[in-house]
Amino acid sequence: MPLSSLDIVFYYSDGATGPSNNTLSLGGTISASTITDALANNIYDDVTGDESSAGDTEYRGIYVKDTNATYTMINTKIWITGYTRHATGTLADTISMGCSTFILGANTMGVCANESSSMNETGIVWVTEGAPSNTIGFSNTSIATTTSPFGATTLAAGSYFGVWFKRIVPAGAGAYSNRSVTIQVQCETTASPYTQTITKEFKVEWSGNNFYVCPIKLL
Question: I need a labelling partner for 136 at 20 to 30 A (CA). Which of 18, 80, 82, 98 fits?
């Protein structure tokens, strides 16, 4: 049967296998482990008191794979469609997303030396969440890069592409639990004699009680 949304699967990169070691998902080769949708800390860990006090920027690299053995992903697009976050912009962290500039369908993406270091790629186009009071303006808009123009490329069956995430926590960030951002992948598939549009929705979520406004001062 034709490609379905169930065939579009998210994977960790490098040695990451789950929420407990998501800090290892820093690009390179695709992991054998899939990423569970809407699971707490599925891509990012909690923000600690020190990180929220001083500010922190962290990166993650993941893969999106067409797991169908036959059908390809045509006119592939990926975008940010929604989020839940702190209501005050100056206290809220932000998530940006960009596609790897490495060749679409290649076996590897770039790498980060650690979660606080940017990847060894250039020309990444970052798309960031809108302000808390505004609507995200990226629906049905592909993320384009200099070497992989999504929306004009076919991803072969069994192939995958890399996606980077960048989380910026401002100094003195406000406490917030149940934080999430929703990503959508859209493509077309041949279903003779028609072309069918497929959409996969995936939620990046982290929930915990380690996101403090500032550390406690002991007297």
Answer: 18
Is residue 215 in some structural domain?
A: no
Structural domain span for residue 22? 5-206
Q: Residue 144 gets which letter from DSSP?
A: B
* Residue 155 neighbours by CB under 8 Å, 6+ apart: 66, 72, 73, 76, 104, 105, 161, 187
Domain count, the chain: 1
Q: Is residue 219 part of a domain?
A: no
pLDDT digits (tens, 9 = 90+) for 122-181: 888 788 876 443 333 333 333 333 333 344 467 888 988 899 999 999 998 888 888 898
Q: Encoding tokens for residue 141? A: 């808009």
* Closest alpha carbon to 153 in 70, 82, 66: 66
Count each helix (H run) and each strand (E run) in the chain, helices first. Answer: 1, 10
